[in-house]
């Protein structure tokens, strides 16, 4: 056999993402729910996550960069973003959201902005990972 199958490449890639802490067991659970009756399940979940995350990040950006930060609203959006990233298995992104929540609890705008940059970086990393998985997954 010359190379590995697409299925094996996908499995290896997902394992690498686990090893790097980008994905956790929640992604495996989402993947396990895909079947012949719902062959686009993972793609649909990934698409919903991207939409939710992009909206959440835009809202956080607007609220954190306002003159007076409404930390209650920021906490609400952080909670939503953490939930959606955790549900898809985005471990590092969910951890960054948790750190952002703690900074919000302390009402530290400067620290919130610092950690928000990390949340965005983790989102970009997760987005790249999920896009790669989407390209390799069988349709």
Structure in words:
The chain is an all-alpha fold and 139 residues long. Helices cover 77% and strands 0% of the residues. Helix 3 packs antiparallel against helix 4 and helix 5 (91-105) packs antiparallel against helix 6. The longest helix is centred in the C-terminal third of the chain and has 28 residues, at 109-136. The mean pLDDT is 94.
Task: Pick out its properties.
mainly alpha; 77% helix; 139 residues; elongated
The biggest sheet amounts to: none
Per DSSP, the total helix count is 6
Order of helices and strands: HHHHHH
Q: What is the averaged pLDDT score?
A: 94
Helix content: over 70%
Radius of gyration over alpha carbons?
Answer: 17 Å
How many strand elements?
0
Task: Detail the poorly predicted runs.
Answer: none
Silhouette: elongated
Intertermini distance: 24 Å
Structure classification: mainly alpha
Can I get a quick summary?
The chain is mainly α and 139 residues long. 77% of the residues lie in helices and 0% in strands. It has helices spanning 6-19, 25-32, 41-64, 71-88, 91-105, 109-136.
Topology of helices and strands:
Layout: H1 6-19, H2 25-32, H3 41-64, H4 71-88, H5 91-105, H6 109-136
Helix pairs in contact: 3-4, 3-6, 4-5, 5-6
